[in-house]
Amino acid sequence: REAGPALEPGYATGLVPCRVTTRQRGRQVTMIKIASTQVVPWRVYQPVVSRSGYLGRVRQIVSPREAWVDLLAAPDFALGVEFERTGLIGILRPQANDIQVDMVGRDEDVQVGDVVITSGITEVRDLAAHGDTGQTPRGFRLGVVATVEKPAEGMFKEITLDLAATADVNETVFVVTNPNAGIAAF
Fold this sequence. Notes:
This protein is an all-beta fold. The protein has strands at residues 15-23, 31-35, 47-49, 54-63, 66-71, 79-83, 89-95, 98-102, 115-118, 141-149, 158-163, 172-176.
């Protein structure tokens, strides 16, 4: 099925269903291993989603049918995001036990409950070895704003998110096989 809350009807790319086979053990799960019944054209940084939203991206290819996925909670994860209501851009980063959006000016219009999606802005990383642009398509649902604080000092708001999807209960996830095709509904 190529539609669901995270993927609007008309999503213009292929999805490969995968089963979560392993969760990294520890205080907070930051990686999962996924397996497909078919050969997958894996690429490092390939988006992985669930029916609820964006989960993470392929970090390491194990075999033609298996890969490790970095989840949004991984310590070195960073992702360009957009506030759907206003079009504001920020950077999603995990901080301790929270998922925060950084680089949003203290006077910008951000409200609790605002939906946050992937921005589609190319991410900066060394991709020459992978032959990829590093772009996560715009429009994957990440979550909603849980808290917004405007510190007395500083240039940026302090924003935390409630994620739309987690790997705590997901047994089936989907690998986006052609992220450059984009989301037609957006």
